[in-house]
Amino acid sequence: MVSNPYRIFKEFELDALWASPSCTTHSDARGGRPIDQDQDRATPWCVMRWIEACKPLYVFIENVPSFVKWGPVNSRGNVIKSREGETFHAWVNAIRALGYTVEWKVLCVADFGDPTTRERLFVCAVRGKRRIVWPNPTHSKDPDA
After folding, report:
1. pTM to 2 decimals?
2. How far apart are CA 112 and CA 145, in angstroms?
């Protein structure tokens, strides 16, 4: 059950928001099965509700790299290739419309000390004139990569 952010925090009370929306319907690891869980595909929009309600200074969102391909699906539940990324970019623009600067990168988490070589997408958003500073790898074999 998703809590109502308006009942939990006052505006500007939350400094940072970390979100990891459900990724099973965006993941390549799902074995190519059709995407048929509309509610799971909607969870990133729930993050918008928290951003709008709390107006945190910083927002961090972690997901699978293929999340950037989030787009409309056809009647069989497959993403329409010609519209890949359309919904992702609409979602990013909605965050920007709330006064945030938004950037995203795919990072190999092993380069930062995680015991897996899995790549993850990180979306960072900052409110106001702040800038986003990405960390330097701490465990990379090639720190200049």
Report:
1. 0.82
2. 13
